[in-house]
Amino acid sequence: MSTGWACSHVVAAMSINEQFDLDLAATRLPTTKLSGGQRKIPNALTIDITGAKRFSTKLITRLQREPMYIHNWQVCKDFIFEEDGVETTEFITGRIKGAQMKNGVYQWRVKFVDGDELFYECQDIAEIIAASRNIGLDVTSLDEQA
């Protein structure tokens, strides 16, 4: 039983021995895929390197197109406090609760568990989401208890 497929080295040998017209075959055979298989496109939350401040640019593109895509996502931000001359870094979680457009620029409102509400522009919120994911937070979790 034959499937009609021939290995490339067999086709090349037949072409060299003039048993196969490669130019004619190339004009008649449609190519539908790239050689080596299709490339996987990373999703919006692709992790590059743990601790790196890089993130997928697809997230920024999607936020500009669909600003409420990240509604209720969980994020974590590090805040630095100084008490009695000792500097302390505290990681506080919060939820993205809304978006607004101000002077043509989107801003996302994050409500933190300590009661603070801060607004972040597109680049900043994308960096916070990426940093939160890099430290192990499930940013897409919709569980309010998390």
Please characterize this protein's 3D structure.
By secondary structure, the chain is an alpha+beta fold. It has a domain at 57-134. The chain is built from four helices and four strands. It has helices spanning 8-16, 22-28, 57-65, 122-134, and strands at residues 74-83, 86-102, 105-112, 117-121. Strands 1-2-3-4 form a four-stranded antiparallel sheet, covered by helices on one side.
Task: Using brief descriptors, characterize the structure shown.
146 residues; alpha+beta; elongated
Secondary-structure topology with pairs:
Elements (H helix, E strand, L loop, with lengths): L7 H9 L5 H7 L28 H9 L8 E10 L2 E17 L2 E8 L4 E5 H13 L12
Antiparallel strand pairs: 1-2, 2-3, 3-4
Distance between the termini: 58 Å
Give the overall shape, derived from the CA principal axes.
elongated
CA radius of gyration is 26 Å
The number of helical elements comes to 4
Largest sheet: 4 strands, antiparallel
Mean pLDDT: 81
Enumerate the spans where pLDDT stays under 50 for 5 or more consecutive residues: none
Helix content: 25-40%
- Sequence of secondary-structure elements: HHHEEEEH
Subunit arrangement of the protein: single chain
The secondary structure category is: alpha+beta
Strand adjacency order, main sheet = 1-2-3-4
What's the β-strand tally? 4
Strand portion = 25-35%
